[in-house]
Design a protein that fits this description.
By secondary structure, the protein is an alpha+beta fold. The chain has a single domain, classed as Nucleoside Triphosphate Pyrophosphohydrolase. The chain is 17% helix and 37% strand. The chain has two helices and seven strands, in the order ββββαβββα. Strands 1, 2, 3, 4, 5, 6 and 7 form a seven-stranded mixed β-sheet that branches.
Length: 139
């Protein structure tokens, strides 16, 4: 069995007063083999020779064009059917943006945006990203 290790980042901008905090999401490409056109957390596959946090920094830069500070691990998500492309185990991290925060959709992201945390339950999110966000907010 082939299993891929991935990382996802929950990037929340806490600079706004409650309840106006925003979370950064990307819209997956319409040609993606998994959840095309749906909103998702930034992240992706860990490459050979890469540490988990290095992979997360790289993926966020590729997909969002920003740097983040990684604060803590949220959890490990290993539901067998979480990705229709095959077995993927992801490790999710809580992150905050730092430096120049001019987001730019890149890599396989069709679009990118900040969304109010209270509005994301109205959106269709890819994978098990609702669970990851919920867990991030509970930690």
């Amino acid at each position: 069995m082939n299993v891929d290790l991935t990382v996802d980042g929950v990037i929340i901008d806490w600079n706004k007063p409650y309840p106006h905090q925003n979370i950064l999401l990307i819209r997956r490409s319409k040609t993606s083999r998994a959840f095309p056109g749906m909103w998702a957390l930034p992240g992706g596959k860990v490459e050979d020779g890469e540490l988990l946090e290095e992979a997360l920094h790289r993926e966020i830069m590729e997909e969002c064009g920003i740097k983040v500070a990684i604060h803590n691990m949220i959890g490990i998500y290993d539901a067998i059917e979480r990705d229709p492309r095959g077995r993927k185990i992801t490790i999710a991290y809580y992150c905050v943006p730092w430096g120049d925060v001019k987001i730019v959709a890149g890599d396989d992201a069709e679009d990118i945006g900040w969304f109010n945390l209270h509005d994301i339950n109205l959106m269709k999110l890819a994978f098990d990203h609702y669970d990851i966000i919920r867990d991030a907010l509970e930690t």
